[in-house]
Amino acid sequence: xxxxxxxxxxxxxxxxxxxxxxxxxxxxxxxxxxxxxxxxxxxxxxxxxxxxxxxxxxxxxxxxxxxxxxxxxxxxxxxxxxxxxxxxxxxxxxxxxxxxxxxxxxxxxxxxxxxxxxxxxxxxxxxxxxxxxxxxxxxxxxxxxxxxxxxxxxxxxxxxxxxxxxxxxxxxxxxxxxxxxxxxxxxxxxxxxxxxxxxxxxxxxxxxxxxxxxxxxxxxxxxxxxxxxxxxxxxxxxxxxxxxxxxxxxxxxxxxxxxxxxxxxxxxxxxxxxxxxxxxxxxxxxxxxxxxxxxxxxxxxxxxxxxxxxxxxxxxxxxxxxxxxxxxx
Length: 329
What we know:
The chain is an alpha+beta fold. The protein is built from 15 helices and 11 strands.
């Protein structure tokens, strides 16, 4: 009886380990580095992976450096939105060691800089707004139109809304301000936070008033409102290093996986090699979330329903059919 009991315990132990190992093998973990756009792309890819390929998914949340380190170590399988230049040291180390495999570029048309509502340049006949700065095309044109953007706290100067404090963009804009001599005509207004910056844009749009300041893409603001990025000198390292006298460099935003994915889920790897969107499309998804008080999963369903012509190009016909069947439920 004793030997029989021991044998039963051994069988139960090995059966338990086998179940746990199979479950772990069948689960793919996405990185959530803390912003809405990566969550939407996680939800899109996650829905496809679960319904098109039969894997379970999970999400690990953390800062960019922490989640990238998790990708290197294999605690995270998939990174849908790696802003490569922002954390180049960690990302490059993972690429060089072979622990991170870069599969595709999700989007590389992102931008940041000084924007104005498009009605400032072109007007908006439907709202009865006349163009206030019809020849405004570049950052260097701003001194001609400082009065259009008059600072309510200092009417002798214009106001440019800057980056939230402690962002690298704040350092860039303050340097650019002096390099271009904008400080002679404008006050650099620090909004205090990205929420306050958003509020200033929304308030200007609701009233149809002029506004000029820093912003970036992709964001829900850019998906909801018609904004124009003011041109700047083409990016060049020498200009950038001498007073930031050029446009912000673009950042390649990639889809990357841990090396273990090549064996763990090769068919998912092939799907992710084809995954490609754009800042404009991501703007629209973020705007959908904002306007409909929707979460990332709901925005993903909206995208999959509205843009079948895009995502069906990412995966084989049989997997696409399974995803379509899941959407119909």
